[in-house]
Amino acid sequence: MGQTARVSTQRKPGAVAFIHSAFADPLPSSTPAAGDPTGEGLARPPSLLGLTAQLESPAAAAQSSADREMRKIPNNGNLKMTKVVYPLGLFICLFIYVAYIKWHWASATQAFFSITEVASGARRGHQAHSAPGTAAHGHEVFYGIMFDAGSTGTRVHIFQFNQQPGETPTLTHETFKALKPGLSAYADDVEKSTSGIQELLDVAKQDVPFDFWKATPLVLKATAGLRLLPGEKAQKLLQKVKEVFKASPFLVGDDCVSIMNGTDEGVSAWITVNFLTGSLKTPGRSSVGMLDLGGGSTQITFLPRVEDTLQTSPPGYLTSLQMFNRTYKLYSYSYLGLGLMSARLAILGGIEGKPAEDGKELVSPCLSPGFTGEWEHAEITYRISGQKAAVNLHELCASRVSEILRNKVHRTEEVKDVDFYAFSYYYDLAANVGLIDAEKGGSLVVGDFDIAAKYVCRTAETRLQGNPFLCMDLTYISLLLQEFGFPENKMLKLTRKINDVETSWALGAIFHYIDSLSRQKSPAL
C-alpha cells in the first residue's frame, strides 16, 4: 500500500504472559463407552455367520416367511409417526447446532478474559512456556489490535494491557505502523488493498505472543475516507478486508470490520484522552474535552456539566457511553466535510469526489496572487491558482472561509469552561508556524491561530511560500474554533502523545470494544 510512515517500538519492561484459548477446541469424536473398550456396544452390521445360522434353521425360515407376509400389510400408524419424527429430528439437530455455535463463541470470548501473566521479568519470546492459568502475580495481561483506515492512510495499533483485579486496566505497551495511501484509494481495485492489510497483520503477529493470538480481538474501523465513498464501493472494500481478517489467527467477530460514524470517532478519542490523563480511573475527577481535525471530518467531544448544554443541544449531539460500569452523557458531534482537506476543496470551489469540469482551474483568494499549481485530493488532481492582484489576503480569505462555515457548526457556551486537548491537523499547523514545539507539543490560546494566519497571509501577498495552503489552513482553523464558541483567550493543549502513547481514537475504540466483551461475559456487573 505504500511507504511506512512511522513505527513505534517502545516497550516497557514487564512479564510476558500466555493465554489459554478455547477458540479451537476439537469437535467431539465418537469413542467406545466406558466399560466397553472394544466398542462392541456400537451399532454394527449383521454378521455373515448369523445370517447363515438363520438359513440353516427351519424355524427361522418359517419366521422369515411370516415376516414377509407382515411387510405386505400397510402400516398407517408407522407412516404417521414418520411424518412426525422426521421434522422433530431436524428441529433437534438445528437446536444442537445453534447451541454449539453459541457455546463456541462464548468459549472464545471467555478465553480472551482468561489471559494471565506467567513469567514475570522474562524476555519476550525466550521465556519458559508455562501453561496459562491463574495469574502468578494477581493481574492479567491482554492485547487488542485496532486498524485505523483513514482518508490518507491505514494504520495499525497493537496495545498491551495490564489489569489488577477490580481495577481499571493500564496500558503497558503500544506498537504503531502506518502505510499510505488509504483504503479508499483502492475503491476501483479492491484486490490491491489486501497486500497492505497483510503487511500490517504481520506486524501484529510479531508483536503479540503466539499463545495470545486466538484471544486477541482484531478490529478495523474506517473513518471519513470510506464514509465519503459510494456505499457499494465502500462495502466491497470492507468485505475484502474481512476475508483477510477471517484468515488470520486472531479473535475475529462478525463486527470486526465497519465504517465508524463520526460520533463514535469523537467518543473514542475522548476515551483515549481521559484514559491517558487518568480521568476515567478516578470518579469525580474533572474530565477533559477533545478536538480532532482530520482530513475529511472534524470532531468535538466533552462531558457537559451545565444543564443548559444538555437542554439546548440539537438532536444527535448527545450520546451515552458506558465504560467501567459507569455511564457518561457526552456532547459529541462530527462534521463530515469540514476536515482540513475537504475544507480546502470547498474553499477552492471544488466538489468532493468530482474533477473540475473540463479541467477548469480553481481560483482562490486564499492563495498567493500569481500562484499556479496542482493539488491532489482523494485521487483527483486539481489545477489551482491564486486570485490576481489580491490585496489584504487574510481579509479576503476569511470572508471566503466564513461562507463555507456559515450555519454548519453549533456553538455552545460551556466549551470556554472545559479543558480541551486538540489533535491531528491542529497540532501540525501549530507546529508548522512555531506556535508549539514540533516534537513535544505545547499549549496556546485560540487567538494565536488568528495572529499566525494574519502574519502568513500578509507575507503571502508579496512572495510565494513553501506551503501555498498555509494562509488558507490557518485562517480556516482560527474561524472554526471561533464557530465552536472558543474565545480568543481560551487555552488549548496540543499534543501527539500522552505518557508516550499516541492520542488517536484507536486506543479508545479498542478499549470500548474490550469493555463491551467484558459486559457480555459478566452482564450482571
Automatic annotation (TrEMBL):
Annotated catalysed reactions: IDP + H2O = IMP + phosphate + H(+); UDP + H2O = UMP + phosphate + H(+); ADP + H2O = AMP + phosphate + H(+); GDP + H2O = GMP + phosphate + H(+)
Positions in coiled-coil regions: none
Compartments where located: Secreted
This protein's record includes keyword Secreted: yes
EC top class named in words: hydrolase
GO cellular component, one term: Golgi apparatus
Cofactor(s) demanded: Mg(2+); Ca(2+)
Primary localisation category: secreted
Active site (UniProt): E265
UniProt keywords, alphabetically: ATP-binding, Calcium, Disulfide bond, Glycoprotein, Hydrolase, Magnesium, Membrane, Nucleotide-binding, Secreted, Transmembrane, Transmembrane helix
Enzyme nomenclature, EC number: 3.6.1.6
GO molecular function: ATP binding; nucleoside diphosphate phosphatase activity
CDD domains reported for this sequence: ASKHA_NBD_NTPDase6
Chain residues that bind ATP: G295, G296, S297, T298, Q299
Location of the region described as Disordered in the Swiss-Prot/TrEMBL record: 26-46
Purpose of the protein: Hydrolyzes nucleoside diphosphates with a preference for GDP, IDP and UDP compared to ADP and CDP. In the lumen of the endoplasmic reticulum, hydrolyzes UDP that acts as an end-product feedback inhibitor of the UDP-Glc:glycoprotein glucosyltransferases. UMP can be transported back by an UDP-sugar antiporter to the cytosol where it is consumed to regenerate UDP-glucose. Therefore, it positively regulates protein reglucosylation by clearing UDP from the ER lumen and by promoting the regeneration of UDP-glucose.
Family: Belongs to the GDA1/CD39 NTPase family.
Complexes and interactors: Monomer; active form. Homodimer; disulfide-linked. Homodimers are enzymatically inactive.
Name of this chain's protein: Ectonucleoside triphosphate diphosphohydrolase 5
Protein encoded by which gene: ENTPD6
